[in-house]
Design goal:
With 273 residues, this protein is α+β, with helices and mostly antiparallel strands. The chain is 25% helix and 22% strand. The protein has helices at residues 7-28, 37-50, 117-135, 143-156; strands at 54-55, 68-71, 74-76, 90-99, 102-111, 160-161, 167-169, 176-180, 197-200, 203-205, 234-235, 242-244, 247-252, 255-258. The strands form 4 sheets. Strands 8-7-9-13-14 form a 5-stranded antiparallel sheet. Strands 1, 2, 4 and 5 form a 4-stranded antiparallel sheet that branches. It has a 3-stranded antiparallel sheet with strand order 6-10-12, with helices on one face. It starts with 6 loop residues before the first helix and ends in a 15-residue tail after the last strand.
Length: 273
C-alpha cells in the first residue's frame, strides 16, 4: 500500500529531508584528497545528531556504517573504511536522517579535487536524469512515467541503467512501497497521488548496466572474480565508474516538492574555516 501522508507526517518528513540536505552541504567542505571515508561518515553522524536526528542507515538490515560511501566503480552501499580518497575519485555519499521517526534520504555524487572531463560529464548527465524523472511527477503519474523519463536521458548519453536497484517510498521506514525503477513504460506501474513521498535515485554507469553478485542475491564479488571484502558494496561488472543522484520528494497536485533540497543554508558555526 502506498501511504498518503497527513500534514503532521509531512512536517516531520520535511524536517528530516532538510537535515539530509544540510548534511550534504556540511560534508562538502571536507571532501579532499587524504580524508578517509570513515572520517567522512563520523563527521556526518556527529552533524546529524547535533541537529536532533539519527542516522537512518546505521544498523539498517545490519549495515555497519553511519552513511553509505561508494567510490569510483562502487555503485552503492559502500561501507566507510580507512580508505583515503584520492585526487579525481568519484565519490557517492548516500545519507539518511531520521527525525521523530520519519526519514529523509538523498544521495549525491562528487569529484574529489579536479576530475576528468569524462567523470564530470557522467555526473552532469546523471543529475540531468534525476531531474527528468522528477519533472514528470504529479498527482496521477505512474512509477513507469518516472522510470521512462530517467532512462530516456540515460540512453541519450549511452549510460548503463542499473536495473537491480530502485528508488522507493519513504516515510516512517526508509524503504517502503512503491518501488521506483529507473526504467519503465509510460502509464505503467503503480499510480502516485498527492501526499505520497518517494525517493527517485538514478544509478548510471559509464559502461554496461551490469553489477556483479553471486546467485544467492546477497554476496557481492569484485569484477576480477575474487570475493569482496564484505557483503554490501555493489560494484560495476566492467570496472567503469558509476554515479548516483537521489532526492526524496513529496507528490503534489500539479508537481512535486523536493524535501532533501540542496539550497539550504548552513549555520556559520557549521562551516570549517
Amino acid at each position: 500500500m502506498i501511504i498518503v501522508r497527513n500534514d503532521e507526517e509531512i512536517d516531520k518528513l520535511r524536517e528530516a529531508g532538510r537535515i539530509v540536505g544540510l548534511t550534504h552541504k556540511y560534508l562538502q567542505q571536507f571532501i579532499k584528497p587524504g580524508i578517509t571515508t570513515k572520517e567522512l561518515a563520523r563527521l556526518a553522524k556527529k552533524f546529524i545528531l547535533s541537529k536532533g536526528c539519527t542516522c537512518s542507515f546505521e544498523g539498517l538490515y545490519g549495515f555497519p556504517g553511519e552513511i553509505c560511501i561508494s567510490v569510483n566503480d562502487e555503485v552503492v552501499h559502500g561501507i566507510p573504511s580507512h580508505r583515503k580518497l584520492k585526487e579525481g575519485d568519484v565519490l557517492k555519499l548516500d545519507i539518511g536522517a531520521c527525525y521523530k521517526g520519519y526519514h529523509g534520504d538523498s544521495a549525491w555524487t562528487y569529484i574529489v579535487g579536479e576530475g576528468s572531463e569524462k567523470n564530470k560529464k557522467l555526473l552532469k548527465e546523471t543529475e540531468e536524469a534525476l531531474m527528468a524523472g522528477l519533472g514528470v511527477i504529479h498527482d496521477g503519474c505512474t512509477t513507469g512515467d518516472i522510470g521512462h523519463a530517467v532512462s530516456k536521458v540515460a540512453h541519450k548519453y549511452n549510460l548503463g541503467v542499473v536495473k537491480q536497484l530502485v528508488g522507493h517510498g519513504v516515510g516512517d521506514k526508509v524503504h517502503m512501497e512503491p518501488d521506483v525503477p529507473n526504467y519503465g513504460k509510460e502509464r505503467k506501474g503503480p499510480v502516485l497521488h498527492t501526499g505520497n513521498v518517494i525517493a527517485v535515485e538514478p544509478m548510471l554507469n559509464l559502461g554496461t548496466a551490469d553489477i556483479y553478485m553471486l546467485d544467492d542475491d546477497w554476496t557481492i564479488k569484485t569484477m576480477d572474480g575474487k570475493p569482496a571484502a564484505h557483503y554490501w558494496t555493489i560494484k560495476t561488472d566492467d570496472g567503469k565508474n558509476s554515479a548516483h543522484f537521489e532526492h526524496t520528494v513529496l507528490v503534489l497536485d500539479d508537481g512535486y516538492e523536493i524535501l532533501t533540497r540542496r539550497d539550504v543554508e548552513l549555520d556559520p558555526e557549521d562551516i570549517v574555516k
